[in-house]
Amino acid sequence: MAAADPRRLGPLERQRRRLFWPFVLPALICYGALFLVPIGYAAWTSLYQWDGMGEMRWRGLGNYAVLLEDPTFATSTLNTLKILVIGGLVTFLISFLLTLVLREMRAKLFARSVLFFPNLVNAMVFGAVAGFVFSPDGPVNTVLGWAGVETPPKWLAVDNVFPLIVATLVWTATGYYTTIIMAAVDQIPPYLYEAAELEGASPWQRLRNITIPLSWDVITVCAVLWTVSSVKVFELILLFGGGNSGNPPTQTWTTAMYVYTSAFPNSSVPKMGLASAAALVSLAMVGLFTLLLRRIMRRDPIQY
Amino acid sequence: MRAPKASARFLAAGVVAALALTACGGSGGDSGSPASSGKGGEFTYWSMWRADEPQAKVIKAAIDKFQAETGTKVTVEWQGRDVRQKIGPAIAANKAPDLWDQGADVISPTALAGQAADLADVYAAEVPGEGKKVSDVVDAKYLDQLPKDAEGKNRWILPYELISAQLFYNAADPDLADPPATWEEFIELCDTLKAKDRACLASDGDLSWENFLTLDYLIVRDNGPGTLGKIVADKSGAGWDNPGILESAKRMEQLVKGGYLIKGYDASKYPTQQTKWAKGEAAFLMNGSWVASEVATLVPSDWKMGSIPVPPTKGGNTEADAILFGFTVPKRAKNPEPAKRFLAYFMKKENLEKISTEAKNITPRADIPAPAELESVQKTLVDNPARTIMDGAPGEYGDKVIYPAFLELWHGKITSAEFVAKAKQAHIQYWKTAG
């Protein structure tokens, strides 16, 4: 981008420049008012001890010090990272395998709809269904019993709840990301695949050398979307771990859950400052991950 | 939100016209509001119930009568349980309603923050037409056990519904015809059932709060009321070294190791085992008394709901868990007086008894009989001193200190001694960051 002498620009470019601010400003104002101001407010709140109702008391970085020391926040952060990294890797691995199959199969539109379906179902349903399917004398153990398994695993034991949550997330997200990636794959000219086939490329080589490079931009966007959404995981935790009263076990908490329980506690004064600090830390985490991802995944666009 | 507001206004205007009160004028822009002299006035109410729930219908009927009789204009928003998340920001923005309701554990954060009005004047007021004060019909024992607010008062709630945590069972079950009166008898009964290949206790092992209720009771039975509260408050964690705590934890270990628990309790998700209990596969289930309505459609037709508190271990210490649902008035309410008048009005027997007859719950008035399935719960509440579950310890303390170790004990992964050690360690960690 050469910051050239404006006189050397064409009339179209000059018009474009003149219209830049009138078009961008409204969006910028909305963005500022709806996102930046609340974030700034949260940052300010995080420096205080505040019950969310009365006066605020200055606490400096005290809330952040608490987060550092609180083992529950460490567990919550670790869980969020597990969802982000492990859940993300598994989701995208399955999505790629599916694109490999889906591109060439018959009735692929139908198959895609089926894959997308879990994404439309309310998370509430998964909680209830998992409770039934994996219960000690539920269908899974019955089938295992037929296969001669005498002591089936305790699927729903507290230690297994978090892996189950990650598995549910992967299952619902796979269809979603496969659909997006497939939309990009459909744009790849078929003659590229035909040529590769003629030259004897295996399906794996076609995925590696054609599909992935040519849908790279979309994959990058999907990776960022996954990062952002994984930090917000909340209702699944609530649904998988608990009944009417009380919170899910801390082993399954994510940072979002930590924020919630700090802001809306039972029988104690709400800690809005701590909740804001925790929210900001997770925001910083997403920001950092997104930056890293974009840096790692940066490629020159391929024209085709 | 518009529609009910408009209809309430219309109704109020109609009432005003009918009573020929000269109430026009008032506060300028706000048309149709009756003058707030003694009677009349207006207030807003955010309900924890959605409009189609039985409690909402009972409260709505009372509000309608109250409006007609006093010319007070009541603006109701049927918020549902979300009122819990909405009330804090509303108080902060000075837009709180004049009245809202919830469980005492949800209201107490506002009270502890000094944002709930003292309702002493409501308790001193007369229940209209009954010649008795509100404090005469609501037993003080339910209130004295509540956490104290910033000013050391605990009259920040007026309860209209009582819940208790008990061991529920089928009183028509011949095996359970003679419910145990002591802990020893309870274990004996469990042994008898075990010999018959029946589980003594059902439990959904993923639930922390519900399962801890039993140990919470045992700590009181073994060590007297208020013990857990003292342990929580002692920052050093020395409270956990009290030998009586280990004694109670050992009783829990006995339940686990004795094989009295329903099979698969540690590998299922609520409400799997509760459902099995309702079908008679285990004798007892520890839970809040809402369980009676939760399983109402599951139990066989000859089921008769009975309940006992955790039996005493060494005589005395017979406190019963009491969970209060009730009204509260924010300190910054703009129209507290009419709201408080409604509270006294709602305590009238003819209003409150519908909480029992229509909403199927226990009321705080001992002269209103509980619905049949909760008779035994009401009797336990009336006959024994009341206590708050976990002595009102912060929910955070349960989540971070007690439950992680407790669930391991309950799932048979650690011993009672290890439980106490783990809880103590988590307690010390908790106080490093809390407060």
From TrEMBL, chain A:
Its main location: membrane. The chain crosses the membrane at residues 20-44, 83-102, 114-134, 161-185, 214-240, 272-293. Signal peptide: none annotated. It is a multi-pass membrane protein. Residues 77-293 form the ABC transmembrane type-1 domain. Pfam families: BPD_transp_1 (PF00528). Belongs to the binding-protein-dependent transport system permease family. This is Sugar ABC transporter permease. It comes from Nonomuraea longicatena.
From TrEMBL, chain B:
The keyword Oxidoreductase does not apply. It comes from the Bacteria. Keywords: Signal. Transmembrane segments: none annotated. Residues 1-25 form the signal peptide. Gene3D superfamilies: Periplasmic binding protein-like II. InterPro entries: Bact_solute-bd_prot1 (IPR050490), SBP (IPR006059). This is Maltose/maltodextrin ABC transporter substrate-binding protein MalE. SUPFAM superfamilies: Periplasmic binding protein-like II (SSF53850). PANTHER family: ARABINOSE-BINDING PROTEIN-RELATED (PTHR43649), DIACETYLCHITOBIOSE BINDING PROTEIN DASA (PTHR43649:SF12).
